[in-house]
């Protein structure tokens, strides 16, 4: 089986926040950020699989910080785990300070993509070998996020979500 690393799929997209992308108090619309994250994540999934990819689930989004008009926003996406045909993509969003250039984390999200053939049917993707400690930790926790997403979507019975159950059973 072929394996790739998260670095192979890493996708970094930097762009400004324009007036048409803001709400009445001058901060970026959540939907605009969701679209930017979806685009960067789909490129990452395509780089990993070299296939047509489709968003199958948005598993987690945290809007932790407001993003003002004129901000320079960097969306960084990379595969955190590959299963059979599905890939979890972790997305980190950074804001760049105008004067110092220092980047601070603004938001993060986790999307799931499926690789498909020309008929839209799921196809197998390469495996993933995480390298850094952060990549390993995201890789290790991805299976329980997949199980949670499948349970919430009604595609898996709660009793079958063994990895998810283990998390609650190990809680102090
Ligand atoms: C993506 C799609 C082809 C998958 O078809 P499907 O019949 O669900 O196929 P499967 O049940 O075999 O699932 C395929 C993979 O997706 C995973 N999956 C399906 N639903 C999921 C969910 N809600 N959360 C996480 N993973 C999910 C499955 O676990 C499976 O993963 P694996 O092969 O790595 O084990 C189908 O759901 C589809 O066409 N969805 C629409 C996608 C789309 O249009 N996206 C853009 C929205 S505008």
Fourth CATH level, the homologous superfamily: Hotdog Thioesterase
How is the quaternary structure best described? Answer: single chain
The CATH architecture can be named as: Roll
Principal-axes geometry comes out as: globular
Distinct bound molecules? coenzyme A
CATH topology name: Thiol Ester Dehydrase, Chain A
Beta fraction: 25-35%
For the record, what CATH class applies?
Alpha Beta
Overall structural class, as computed from helix and strand content, comes to alpha+beta
How far is it from the N-terminal to the C-terminal residue, by CA? 39 Å
Structure, briefly:
It contains four helices and seven strands, in the order E-H-E-H-E-E-E-E-E-H-H. It has about 170 residues and is α+β, with helices and mostly antiparallel strands. A hairpin with a 6-residue loop joins strand 5 and strand 6.
What does this structure look like?
The chain is of the alpha+beta class and 172 residues long. The protein has one domain: Thiol Ester Dehydrase, Chain A, CATH 3.10.129.10. The protein has helices at residues 6-9, 30-49, 133-152, 162-169; strands at 3-4, 11-16, 52-63, 72-82, 86-96, 103-116, 127-128. The protein has a 5-stranded antiparallel sheet. Strands 1-7 form a two-stranded parallel ribbon. The longest helix has 20 residues, at 30-49. Bound molecules: coenzyme A. Coenzyme A (COA) is lined by residues 54-57, 83-86, 112, 114, 116, 120, 122, 146, 149-150, 153, 155.
Write the layout of secondary structure elements.
Layout: E1 3-4, H1 6-9, E2 11-16, H2 30-49, E3 52-63, E4 72-82, E5 86-96, E6 103-116, E7 127-128, H3 133-152, H4 162-169
Parallel strand pairs: 1-7
Antiparallel strand pairs: 2-4, 3-6, 4-5, 5-6
Helix pairs in contact: 3-4
The protein binds coenzyme A (COA).
């Amino acid at each position: 089986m072929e394996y790739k690393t998260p670095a192979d799929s890493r996708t970094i997209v930097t762009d400004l926040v324009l007036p048409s992308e803001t709400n009445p108090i001058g901060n970026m619309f959540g939907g605009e950020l969701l679209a930017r994250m979806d685009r960067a994540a789909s490129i990452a999934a395509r780089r990993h699989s070299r296939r047509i990819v489709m968003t199958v689930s948005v598993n987690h989004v945290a809007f932790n910080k407001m993003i003002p008009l004129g901000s320079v926003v960097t969306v960084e996406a990379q595969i955190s785990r590959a299963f059979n045909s599905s890939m979890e993509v972790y997305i980190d969003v950074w804001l760049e300070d105008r004067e110092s250039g220092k980047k601070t984390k603004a938001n993060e999200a986790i999307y799931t993509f499926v690789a498909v053939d020309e008929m839209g049917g799921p196809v197998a993707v390469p495996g993933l070998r995480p390298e850094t400690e952060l990549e390993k930790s995201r890789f290790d926790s991805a299976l329980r996020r997949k199980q949670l997403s499948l349970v919430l979507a009604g595609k898996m019975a709660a009793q079958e979500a063994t990895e998810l159950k283990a998390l609650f059973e190990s809680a102090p």
